[in-house]
Design brief:
- There is one protein chain.
- The chain is an alpha+beta fold.
- The protein has one domain: Beta Barrel (Lipocalin).
- Helix content is 14%, strand content 26%.
- It has a 9-stranded mixed β-barrel with strand order 1-2-3-4-5-6-7-8-9.
- It is globular.
- The two termini are 22 Å apart.
């Protein structure tokens, strides 16, 4: 769509211009997913039963299928792991005992607790889950559980599951310009084994600012997001 194409062009131009480094070249700062990772689709190792159900659903939807999922159409929070791997910027903030992660396209801030030996007992499942972390040298390791079952956290035909666990690893390059990210998904009710996906990020300028983005059902321009979707019969508010 026109908005996405314009956004990606602006992102590419900003990266090619050469992002400035944060003063300490640490994790704190703003990051943008590597353009080559935008929209990359990888296939998780689904169990035979889940894979068969996913294939049947895809066949029923036809080759074109819906442009956006029902979750997107309802403006549900992006949550994990989507907020960490899309075309919108992320901001990492390091403070004593905590790393806070803010995404431009998610209204929910992620808190990674560094001073916990284990997850909080009885934590309520949520879109971002509950995250604890620790440093292994210069690599931040994050363990996330308690993801809700209102949407899939694995994607590619996997059903919603409250059993999904995600382990992430983030390492800033020696020159501070790039961030290597790795996510390992663990869910024996959906996957045949752990599944790892890698992403790269580029540091934005030191004075870069977060955009304010909100998904509003029925807002002017909202229905244009579904142009070409055979299931869409939506019109913007007048």
């Amino acid at each position: 769509m026109a908005f996405r194409q314009a956004l990606l062009a602006a992102v590419a131009a900003a990266i090619c211009a050469g992002p400035a480094l944060a003063q300490d070249a640490g994790l704190t700062g703003m990051w943008l997913l590597e353009p080559s990772d935008f929209g990359r689709r990888e296939s998780p190792p689904l169990t035979p039963e889940i894979a068969a159900a996913a294939a049947a659903a895809q066949k029923a939807a036809g080759p074109d299928g819906p442009v956006l999922s029902d979750d997107n159409k309802r403006c549900l929070p992006t949550g994990m792991p989507g907020m960490m791997a899309n075309e919108f910027a992320l901001e990492f903030l390091e403070t004593p005992g905590r790393v806070t992660i803010i995404s431009e396209n998610s209204p929910l801030v992620r808190s990674v607790y560094l001073n916990r030996k284990g997850h909080t007992d009885g934590v309520t499942p949520g879109w971002n889950g509950h995250s604890i972390g620790h440093w292994e040298g210069k690599t931040l390791v994050i363990d996330t559980i308690a993801l809700n079952d209102r949407k899939t956290h694995i994607g590619r035909g996997a059903p919603p599951s409250a059993n999904t666990r995600i382990v992430e690893r983030y390492t800033v390059s020696a020159d501070g310009k790039t961030l290597a990210g790795e996510m390992t998904f663990i869910d024996d009710t959906v996957l045949t084994g752990p599944w790892t996906v890698k992403h790269g990020y580029n540091r934005l300028e030191a004075d870069a600012e977060l955009w304010e983005y909100a998904c509003e059902v029925g807002a002017a321009g909202w229905s244009e997001r579904f142009e070409g979707d055979p299931e869409a019969k939506l019109t913007p508010k007048s």
